[in-house]
Amino acid sequence: MVPPMLNFLTSSDQVTPADLESVRGAMCSAAPVPSTTAKLFKEKAPHPVTFQEGFGMTETLGTHMTPLDDERLGYCGKVAPNVEAKVISEEGKALPRERGESFASGVHRLKELIKVKGFQVAPSELEDVLLQHSGVMDVAVVGVPDDRAGELPRAYVVRSPSSCTEDDIHKFLKERLADFKQLKGGVRFVDALPKSPTGKVLRRELQAVAAKDL
């Protein structure tokens, strides 16, 4: 499945633990999986569930996936035998002596990173935190142009029945993330997020909506 599907199974009242009675394993790919969502899914299922995250590309899903014998949320597997990997900068320059791990992980697609005053902000990091708020059922974060900062994060939020206000969202995030990661591009409440047939959030449509607000 993809992250939005996992979020629905976790947060929707239409899905009860009894509906997950037969689940023993789950696989998710296409985009980074919020660790909070994965943990809540495992807790909601009545039986222990092995959770695997895949890299997302059809060609690599068979090898770039969390090993069954070493489950770690937020990682998508180890480097395969006879394969080399390296860490590079945005410009393609090698970054020797940078800290690395034997497990592969990533923050987001490079083109979707939000650049705030020279800092790079991963939408998935903000979304992961926002989904911990009881008033947030679904959320997507995109960058909106700003003359001074370059870009600013903006959240499009689908509220849960418990509801929340924009001030609630700002206060919640301020207590958990650095200043440059705050939603200074604003919060917009929507009935639903635009998604593809497979459930992936269509960020380009949200960016188009944001552009009309400028």
TrEMBL record:
- In this chain the AMP-binding enzyme C-terminal domain maps to 125-200
* Gene symbol of the encoding locus: 4CLL7_1
UniProt domain AMP-dependent synthetase/ligase: residue ranges: 2-102
Could you state a single Gene Ontology molecular function term?
Answer: CoA-ligase activity
Q: What Pfam families is this protein classified in?
A: AMP-binding, AMP-binding_C
Q: Which family does it belong to?
A: Belongs to the ATP-dependent AMP-binding enzyme family.
Annotated Gene Ontology cellular component terms: peroxisome
Can you name this protein? 4-coumarate--CoA ligase-like 7
SUPFAM superfamilies to which the protein is assigned, alphabetical: Acetyl-CoA synthetase-like (SSF56801)
> Where is the protein found, in the record's own terms?
Peroxisome
Question: Keywords, A to Z?
Answer: Ligase, Peroxisome
**Primary location class:** other
Q: Which domain of life is it from?
A: Eukaryota
Query: InterPro entries attached here?
Result: AMP-bd_C, AMP-bd_C_sf, AMP-dep_synth/lig_dom
